[in-house]
Amino acid sequence: MKNKGKQTVIRISFVSMIVCLILLFSVSMAAAKTKIVIGDLAFDSAYVNDRIVKFIAEKGMGYEVELMPGDSIMLIAGLRKGDVDVIMEVWVENNQKIYDQGIAEGAFIDLGSNFSDSWQGFLVPTYIIKGDPERGIKPVAPDLKSVYDMAKYWKVFKDPEDPSKGRFYSCIPGWGCEKVNRAKFKAYGLDKHYNLFLPGSDAALSGSMAGAYKKGKPWFGYYWAPTWPLGEFDMTPLEEPAFDEKVWNETKGCAYPAVKVNIAVHKAVPEKAPDLVEFLKKYETTQEICNKFLSYMKNSNAKAEDAAIWFLKNYETLWTQWVSEDVAKKVKAALK
């Protein structure tokens, strides 16, 4: 009888130990949050927005965050497949076809606007039209107003590699705007007078503008806002026919539509990271705010991570509206 009693106690102790281990394992698994993959688009505003989210998600919410570099088409495709969890800057109209496919399939969810006052189009330095007396620059295209005027001014913008045509600095290969700009050029008849030059990166495109501007040289190209160059340099957008959906769908021979820059997540994210989704639903900036952190980044020779910290320190009243008090407390502690 005594032996049976001892065996019963041992069994109960063993079972209790197993139950405790299971409970501890369950608690630790609950505490360990899912890794989140953010599609890290190759331009500065996206770099900073991605790192703002990364800092808050890691320091305030306990997630592990991976940044996956890539171009728009590749990362949106990744979002459809589930290889990417979050994209902070989906330029919807620039990637309309693949975006519409993903939404129609239910592959990803649009959480709304990151910023709604973006701009993109063709432009030249203002001194090309008006000159710059302080720099001793005379106007070389005083009548230049619209894209249609560019045909007669191609010699001003000669391509150094092909002097028989002018050079237009277009979009980065792989971005949706690359194909759009090519179609626009054909619609405006500019393909007969200019070569489309495709810079290999955002840095190469902005560098071409900055280099020409600082030397007072001609430059004709595509750019967008919010960006640091349009905050730094006096550039003049060229007039285009007003956006018309029918024309846009047929030839792209009109102005870019007002572009929605939205936040999107893979369909599985609301279930595996509901608090993150609630945070991203509230996340919203403006072109002005983006220009300010991009200007800080450029003028301070700072990395995107530094610009994200700068934003969190200088816009506390904004970002604390996006998260709970507990998350905000943890983030502020991490900033010290």
Automatic annotation (TrEMBL):
| Gene3D superfamilies according to UniProt | Dipeptide-binding Protein, Domain 3, Glycine betaine-binding periplasmic protein, domain 2
Give the CDD domains listed for this entry. Answer: PBP2_HisX_like
Q: Name one Pfam family in it.
A: OpuAC
Organism's domain of life? Answer: Bacteria
In Gene Ontology terms, what is one molecular function of this protein? transmembrane transporter activity
List, for all copies, the residue spans of the domain called ABC-type glycine betaine transport system substrate-binding: 35-314
**Would you tell me the Gene Ontology cellular component terms?**
ATP-binding cassette (ABC) transporter complex
* InterPro entries, A to Z: ABC_Gly_betaine_transp_sub-bd
Q: What is this protein called?
A: Glycine betaine/proline betaine transport system, substrate-binding protein
